[in-house]
Write a structure and sequence with these properties.
The protein is an alpha/beta fold and 289 residues long. The strands form 2 sheets. It has a 7-stranded parallel sheet with strand order 3-2-1-4-5-6-7, sandwiched between helices. It contains 7 helices and 9 strands; from the N terminus they run βαβαβαβαβαβαβαββ. Strand 6, helix 6 and strand 7 form a beta-alpha-beta unit. Helix 1 crosses helix 6. The two termini are 27 Å apart. 35% of the residues lie in helices and 14% in strands.
Length: 289
């Protein structure tokens, strides 16, 4: 077990599977007590993965995690989540919002309910969580907020082709772009409180149980360890040193020469090479570092 996050308490949403689970494992491997939250406690729904499985994986590696069932589409659950996590674990230092249900459709064909749900999952939910988390972090003299963004938030490339350019991801991408800007502004607002606020995004795609059905077979993808390691890097330095960033999972470790480890933190894996197919707007001098 590492000690980088010893005595820190983290809340990770969407932690029953996929990116949220991987991040929870990596934070726990560095000593954080992690409250993992999602809708599935001990039985999976459409996609495999439960909170009990996440807790078991963390415990098997020597870490500490507590399951907390919440459906962020339910107003009471959303408004009460941070308070319940604080009561369960004794405080809050780190908030990672990874939860959300991505839905895609061409913009002019998209149902109003799908549009509203996408805003709810990816913009309203973190807004509410920030409101409740920041006062708890102020009590502890600082903290870290990480919100999942997306490479789709960058402009579609010309000549127009591919999934995002054809409109299937346009609304999702626009809301993720808003998330990027909201976290950058929040970083400026909270730097004096020593609360670091950053956006985290895959450089390409990560084939998780909930996302794989939307990712074309030919689309480039990456190992989940890279985004977990990048998240860890955003959760320990003071706000004066690392805040207001949009950190991309392959580019950030590459630029900062960070070693990347397995999710249990026990074994270093091959450092990621920058893919030729990554979006050209992810550059060391701007987005991505």
């Amino acid at each position: 077990m590492g000690t980088l996050l010893q005595n820190k308490i983290a809340l990770v949403t969407g932690a029953s599977r996929g990116i949220g689970r991987a991040i929870a494992q990596r934070l726990a491997a560095e000593g954080a007590t992690v409250v993992v939250t999602a809708r599935s406690l001990d039985s999976a729904g459409k996609y495999e993965g439960t909170l009990k499985e996440t807790v078991a994986l963390i415990a098997a590696s020597g870490g500490t995690a507590h399951p907390l069932v919440a459906d962020l589409e339910r107003e009471d659950d959303l408004q009460g989540l941070v308070g319940r996590a604080v009561e369960l674990a004794g405080g809050l230092d780190i908030l990672v919002h990874s939860g959300g249900k991505a839905e895609y459709a061409p913009t002019v064909d998209m149902a109003q309910s799908m549009f509203d749900n996408t805003i709810g999952h990816y913009l309203r939910a973190p807004f509410i969580l920030y409101h409740h988390a920041v006062p708890e972090m102020r009590k502890r003299g600082g903290g870290w907020i990480v919100t999942l963004g997306s490479v789709t938030a960058l402009p579609p490339l010309r000549p127009y082709d591919g999934f995002a350019s054809h409109g299937g991801a346009t609304v999702y991408a626009a809301i993720k772009a808003a998330v990027h800007r909201m976290t950058q502004g929040l970083a400026a607002e909270l730097q004096a409180d020593n609360i670091a606020v950053n956006t985290l995004a895959p450089s390409t795609a990560i084939r998780t149980p909930g996302a794989s059905e939307w990712i074309p077979e030919e689309y480039p993808s990456e190992r989940i360890e890279y985004i977990a390691e990048t998240c860890l890097a955003l959760c320990h330095l003071p706000a004066s040193e690392r805040t207001g960033l949009t950190a991309y999972s392959l580019h950030f470790p590459h630029h900062h020469k960070l070693p990347v480890y397995t999710l249990d933190g026990k074994e270093q894996i091959e450092a990621p090479a920058l893919p030729e197919y990554a979006h050209p707007d992810i550059v060391p001098s701007g987005l991505g570092c």
